[in-house]
Amino acid sequence: MTIGSFDRARFPFTLARRLIYTAVAGLLILAPCARSAEVSETRQLYLTGEYEEALTVATKAAAENRYDEEWRLIQIDSLMALGRYAEARDTVVNALSRFSTSIRLRIAACRVFQFNGKPERVETLLKEIDYLAGTRRWAYTDARNLTALGQAALLLKLDARQVLDNFFDVAKKKDPEYRDVYLAAGNLALEKNDFQTSANLFFEARRKFKDDPDIHYGLAASFASGDRKVAMENLQKTLDLNPNHVPALLLLADHMIDGENYDTAADTLKRAFSVNPWSPKAWALQAVLEHLDNNPKGEARSRENALRHWKTNPEVDHLIGKKLSAKYRFQEGAAYQRRALVFDPDYLPAKSQLATDLLRLGSDAEGWELAKEVNEKDGYDVNAFNLVALNDTMAKFETIQDDEFIVRMSPHEKAIYGDKVLGLLHRAKKVLCGKYGMELETPTIVEIFPKEKDFAVRTFGVPGVDGFLGVCFGRLITANSPASRVSSPSNWEAVLWHEFCHVVTLSMTRNKMPRWLSEGISVHEELAANPVWGQRMNPEYRELVLGEGLTPIGELSSAFLAPESPMHLQFAYYESALVVEFIIKNHGIKALQSILRDLGKGREINESIAAHTEPLRELEKKFAAFAKARAENLAPGLEWEKPKVNPFTADINELVSSHPKNFWILMQQATSLLQQKKYEEAKAPLRKLIKAYPNNVEDADNPYALLAMAHRRLEEFAEEKKVLETLGSLSADSLDAYLRLMQIGAEAKDWQTVERNGDRYLAVNPLLPQPYRYLAQAREANGKPDAAINAYQVMLKLDPPDPADTHFNLARLLHDKQDKAARRHVLQALEEAPRFRDAHKLLLEIVGDNDAPIPATKPAAPPAGSIPRSTPPASPAKPVFQ
Asked: What is the mean pLDDT of residues 401-428?
């Protein structure tokens, strides 16, 4: 059905009605300005949460037979805000009898009748709106009525994007000062997960209506799943302007649930109930709290209250399920979405969420099908659109599968390091499942994305979510590949080990564990698997621990919710791992295992920790002392107070003289000397820093890297190698150091050094050709021809800078093994470099006395800039540590 397409014969528009409308319109035109001011003041009472007073004023004005629908709208809005749905129904019935052509009252009435269990009345009202819009289009061209018609079009399930363009945008142009159109358009964008558009609309509205609580609430909702700081600022502003703003209170409770601050969430819901005791969303969130508290009777009772006035409201089960899924309870969340669809099989938000849940549960076929269905019916649903586009991309992925793992990767990456991925996962499973006594009943799914935006869509539903290396949902792991991390490389082996640890702990607890504990165990197990993985104490963490940055154990999940900066988020991971280390050190691994088993049975985390360690307050006190000692033991020979003067502008020599052990000043001194090319002088402060703080390898410009550069500039290559070896043994992702060590090792024919650093390099980025060249040389020299062949074969898939050389060496090794593929590769070498003499010799050797003709190579001259040569020398490595 479209606006204006309804069968007019069923709803005749009589001449009498036309005359009545004209008379009423005339009275409105002649009404004094004082009446508008009075309406505005009463609406302001409503906006500031004085619902009872606004209702009293509006009821009195309506009783005086004032011909202004605004009084009735204020009455209806106030009654609905107070949860007095039956009274709102009576008010609507009376208002409609007086204002027979009002579109805005009919829109308000639709909501009222829904909350009174009258779906048939809603259908009738929509037909009436459709008829009125078709017969009296001239009467509804102002911003208010265009906005109302847009809302009606949405209820009639017209295309949402067209509604935005053809109704709300037109209304906004007609009257840029009409606040309700911003609310309607912004809320529509929010419903469709188009957070960028909703934020833009509400920002525009805030410039016009800076003290409007509904506008601030819209901004808070737009940023609730993104920048939590902006969300909380606007949420607080909303409640400052209107302490009784129930949607804001519910968003605050939602935020508290995310942070596992359940007691505060319950108190916030009580505030909402004091305003509207029958808010369906409030009772839905109460049901979520009961579910998380393992109280099925309370959960059922809260759900029943949520449905008391609108018994088939699909939004109730949709909201409950959505919040459970946000807690990684995807199975329970999906069940609630199915309940919502029983009430309304065409309720697209539930179908969209169910699609996401199923995809995270590994039920791909049904999940992708649902996403496609939602996208076909609603092209404006951003999540569904993104998922459908992603499905097209993932259809090109290839799978590596056995009984324990299903790994999906791009064909290119699978061919290069797919086997390494599977091998690492099997090692992780053997170690971690054995350590925690866990048997996984179903294969673990691992999906690795070469494009960060695809990873973000698969993981979060929208692109543009940065900063995550991998995410685990239970049996599904999603991860960014090294191809997406070129500018900020990370060790992909450590990432997959970390995420698989989540698979183990989430399976043990049936996804019923707080985020801090899950992350803490995974970071701890990184360090247990490899000392260079995971996180260590650093100057920033030291400052937080010795200051006021340590979060009590009982509140640690909140540290992940709205961190002040990316560094604070990283510190939350570190502190969580430190808590796990503390528990294991003082109470043993069995205590940790018991806590995990308790969580799987539904026991509350702090209660379980106290049961298997000691009372929480005592534990927190001892942990704080443990963390403080760890911080104080970070390079105790250094001073950590940051200089009050700017070391970049102050006299550095004076600063060093007065603070010879200050970490920050020594770093600035070394940097300054290097910039002045005083490499010999720079060595002293760098060595001092390394001796006092040997584990300082996190930053690219760490003392090891700077000292190695100084040695290289001074052509002290033996000393350079020694420093880089130490750096390589301490760092998980120093690509430049690994590459330089391979170069030095190859020149010295130190093939063990080459192999060791080649493997280190591939654990960070296996998608570049340089390390494979060195590894092939090292493996051949170490008597591993098959491994050398494999390295050259991989290299060819990575567009090497000298393909002729690669083909030639591969042909040479294959010929030694009497492999017929040698002939093909030597011909390819000659195709790339027709004058390659050693390749010609090798081809003659391969052909031997065979009378078969040798295929002609290209007679063309060598590529511009190339030099004819015999056996090509090793490709020079790209200089590092400039």
From this structure: 96
Mean pLDDT over 530-549 rounds to 94
Helix (H) or strand (E) holding 418: helix 411-436
Percent of the chain with pLDDT over 70: 91
Whether the predicted pLDDT of 26 surpasses 60: no
Q: Which amino acid is at 100?
A: S
Locus of tokens 């949709």? 318
| Gap between the Cα atoms of 56 and 73, Å rounded | 13
Q: Return the minimum-mean-pLDDT range out of 16-20, 98-102, 720-724, 731-735.
A: 16-20
Locate 619 and state its tokens: 């534990």
What is the domain-level CATH number for residue 481?
1.10.390.10
Burial class (CB in 10 A: 0-12, 13-18, 19+), 579: buried
Categorize the per-residue pLDDT at 652 as very low, low, confident or very high, splitting at 50, 70 and 90: confident
Q: Is 200 in contact with 168 (CB distance < 8 Å)? A: no
Torsional sign, CA 388, 390, 393, 397: negative
At 635, list the tokens: 């390079």
State the pLDDT at residue 20: 30
3-state secondary structure of 95: helix
Task: Give the pLDDT confidence score for residue 17 in this predicted structure.
Answer: 34
pLDDT tens digits, one per residue of 689-705:
999 999 999 888 999 99
* Domain contains 22: no
**How high does pLDDT run on average in the chain?**
89
Mean pLDDT of 362-390: 93
Question: Is residue 402 scored above 80 in pLDDT?
Answer: yes
Q: Are 452 and 484 in contact (CB under 8 A)?
A: yes
DSSP 157-191: T--HHHHIIIIIHHHHHH-TT-HHHHHHHHHHHHH
Q: What angle do CA 691, 695, 698 make, to 5 degrees?
A: 130
Question: So what's the pLDDT on residue 853?
Answer: 54
Q: Does residue 818 lie within any of the structural domains? A: no
Give the pLDDT mean for 361-389.
93
Q: Is 447 helix (H, G, I), strand (E, B) or coil?
A: strand
Instruction: For residue 556, tell me if it sits in a domain.
Output: yes
Question: Which tokens in the block code for residue 798?
Answer: 């990575």
CA distance readout (Å), 640 to 645, 691, 704:
14, 15, 19
CA distance 745 to 145: 78
pLDDT at 66: 67
717, 723, 724, 726 alpha-carbon torsion, rounded to 10°: 150
Q: Which domain holds residue 527?
A: 399-621
User: What is the pairing mode between strands 476-480 and 470-472?
Assistant: antiparallel
The DSSP-derived string for 9-48 is GGS---HHHHHHHHHHHHHHHHS-HHHHHHHHHHHHHHHT
- The count of C-alpha atoms lying within 13 angstroms of the C-alpha of 463, restricted to the half-sphere facing its C-beta, is 10
Per-residue model confidence as pLDDT tens digits over 460-502: 887 767 778 999 999 999 999 999 888 889 999 999 999 999 9
- Whether 160 is in a domain gets the answer no
Token reading at 513: 């564990």
Query: What is the Cα–Cα distance from 725 to 742, expressed in whole angstroms?
Result: 11
Place of tokens 């007065």: 658
What is the sign, positive or negative, of the torsion defined by CA atoms of 611, 614, 620, 623?
Answer: negative
- Residue 371 near residue 358 (C-beta atoms within 8 A): no
Comparing 657 with 80, the larger pLDDT belongs to: 80
Query: How many separate domains does the chain show?
Result: 1
- Is-contact 181 202, C-beta < 8 A? no
Q: So what's the pLDDT on residue 653?
A: 83
Distance of CA 449 to the CA centre of its chain: 14
Query: Which pair of tokens denotes residue 614?
Result: 């000691």
Q: How far is CA 676 from CA 39, 669, 682, in A?
A: 73, 11, 10
Phi and psi torsions of 480, nearest 5°: -80, 140
CA gap 239, 707 in Å, rounded: 55
What is the length of the chain? 882
Q: How far is CA 619 from CA 262, 614, 623, in A?
A: 21, 6, 6
